[in-house]
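Field log, afternoon session.

UNIT: design team B
ACTIVITY: writing a sequence onto a fixed backbone
BACKBONE:
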């Protein structure tokens, strides 16, 4: 099977697992979407580390002030629309709590010059778009590359999503003009304002993660993250200050996070490295089963507008954000949706179709349950040498 960019990802679980004596390396199946390395520390190495702990603070006191103090640097970048990829002119770019600021030119480019080396919060704003913020440590000239701004309501069901994003204004209208939409107007009782049920996060919890970036294969560790499905952006919380910044999903190749609820690592890969009908996919896929024929899952957030009839006072009053899981199997770099029909599922496994059908019959597998797909792919891949399961059960299989 052909190598993919994701196959080269090497993830150090230094922040997620306890170091163990002796080195140990394992890879997950033939595709090797992920490799895990454990820290090995001998007694001699630990003695050296203890001495370094004593000396390092004094070394930094001596070296650090001369490196950055008094030096100035330049920051540049380019701002575009996340959907159309058109450049945005007149965008406001500032470093919070400082005098540094500028606007993008007609080509979307900006440059902050002679900025004193320090830690800043970069804020980029433009009317009609979500604000972009990120933490930067300026100790050299910095090129931020292309920064994408996401329009309010850029995905979803058009007017419905736009109306939802302005739900605060709608709610205020209903309070100020309670008889505007009928209902209980005869009794002088204002109807309860419409709400939005649900959210666009893959997981609302902040999960400890390691992130592999496309650029220079840089690995970020120690951050707690959340992923916004709608905007395809990660929110990163700094470990010390708890400051939150955002990072476009297009910059991230792979991410592994320790699930806060289940206490197990979960593995996600960027769909830009794969193809669906020959076209790269925007968004992230969770790797559920590794090996000869990997099983992957994509979670979609679908906006469902209220169907409430004010005249008859029937239907659902609130808008809803519903999450739906779609399952894929991977061949080379091509992703294919897992068929819904039972007989078509067996055909996926080629020469082992008959064996897989017998396995399903013997174990009374009910294909109406999503966990059945996980069982089938786990069994199939276990027939090949080197298979190591990356999870023992399917997590978050219920649609919400």
């Amino acid at each position: 099977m052909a190598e993919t960019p994701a196959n080269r990802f090497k993830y150090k679980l230094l922040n997620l697992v306890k170091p163990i004596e002796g080195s140990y390396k394992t890879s997950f199946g033939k595709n090797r979407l992920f490799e895990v390395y454990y820290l090995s520390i001998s007694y001699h190495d630990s003695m050296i580390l203890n001495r370094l702990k004593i000396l390092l603070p004094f070394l930094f006191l001596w070296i650090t002030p001369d490196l950055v103090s008094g030096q100035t640097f330049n920051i540049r970048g380019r701002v575009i629309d996340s959907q159309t990829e058109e450049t945005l002119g007149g965008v406001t770019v500032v470093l919070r709590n400082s005098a540094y600021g500028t606007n993008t030119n007609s080509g979307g480019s900006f440059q902050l010059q002679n900025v004193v080396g320090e830690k800043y919060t970069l804020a980029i704003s433009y009317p009609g778009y979500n604000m972009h913020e990120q933490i930067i440590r300026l100790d050299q000239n910095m090129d931020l590359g292309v920064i994408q701004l996401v329009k309010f309501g850029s995905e979803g069901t058009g007017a419905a999503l736009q109306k939802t994003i302005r739900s605060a204004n709608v709610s205020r209208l209903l309070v100020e003009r309670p008889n505007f939409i009928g209902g209980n107007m005869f009794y002088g009782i204002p109807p309860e304002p419409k709400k939005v049920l649900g959210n666009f996060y893959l997981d609302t919890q902040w999960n400890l993660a390691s992130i592999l970036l496309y650029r220079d294969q840089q690995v970020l560790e120690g951050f707690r993250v959340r992923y916004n499905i709608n905007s395809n952006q990660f929110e990163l919380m700094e470990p010390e200050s708890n400051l939150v910044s955002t990072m476009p999903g297009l910059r991230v190749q792979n991410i592994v996070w320790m699930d806060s609820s289940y206490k197990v690592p979960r593995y996600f890969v960027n769909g830009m490295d794969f193809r669906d009908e020959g076209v790269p996919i925007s968004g992230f896929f969770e790797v559920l089963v590794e090996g000869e024929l990997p099983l992957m899952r994509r979670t979609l957030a679908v906006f469902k507008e209220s169907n409430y009839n004010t005249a008859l006072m029937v239907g659902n009053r609130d808008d809803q954000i519903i999450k739906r899981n779609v399952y894929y199997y991977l061949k080379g770099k091509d992703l294919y949706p897992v068929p819904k029909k039972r007989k078509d599922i067996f055909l996926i496994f080629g020469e082992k179709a008959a064996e897989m059908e017998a396995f399903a019959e013997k174990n009374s597998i009910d294909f109406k349950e999503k966990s059945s797909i996980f069982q089938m792919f786990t069994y199939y891949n276990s027939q090949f040498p080197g298979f190591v399961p990356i999870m023992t059960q399917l997590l978050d299989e219920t649609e919400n």
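LOG NOTE: Confidence is low (pLDDT under 50) at residues 1-32, 34-49, 51-68, 155-187.
NEXT ACTIVITY: expression trials, pending approval
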